[in-house]
Amino acid sequence: MLQWFGTITSVAGSFILALGFPLLGYCAFVFGALSWLIVGIRTGNNPLIILNSFFLLANMIGLYRVVLH
After folding, report:
1. In CA terms, which of 17, 23, 48, 59 is 20 to 30 Å from 67?
2. Measured between alpha carbons, how far is 10 from 52 in angstroms, rounded to an integer?
3. 69 vs 8, residue with greater confidence
4. How much is the pLDDT for 30?
């Protein structure tokens, strides 16, 4: 279930951001990356953990920039 949530929020985030709604798009991306990070930790999938750690960091930077600029 968490994998589907991560997939749906990540895909939705990409379209929302592309449509010009950065705050909502980055929020969706953050939830997607967090979901996949949890899946990676639970399954011991190190590449998934590393990938989504960086995605989470990048999306947090984007969210920070949208909120404060």
Report:
1. 48
2. 11
3. 8
4. 97
Phi, psi of 61 (to 5 degrees): -65, -45
Q: Residue type for 11, please?
A: V
Q: What is the DSSP letter of 20?
A: T
Residue 14: φ, ψ to 5°: -65, -40
Say how far apart CA 26 and CA 11 lie, in whole Å. Answer: 11
pTM reported for the whole predicted model: 0.91
Cα–Cα distance for residue pair 45/26, rounded to 1 Å: 24
Do residues 11 and 31 make contact, with C-beta atoms less than 8 angstroms apart? no
Distances from the Cα of 20 to the Cα of 9, 25, 53, 59, angstroms: 16, 8, 25, 15
The set of residues, in sequence order, having a beta carbon less than 8 Å from that of 60 and lying 6+ positions away, is: 30
Q: What is the pLDDT of residue 69?
A: 83
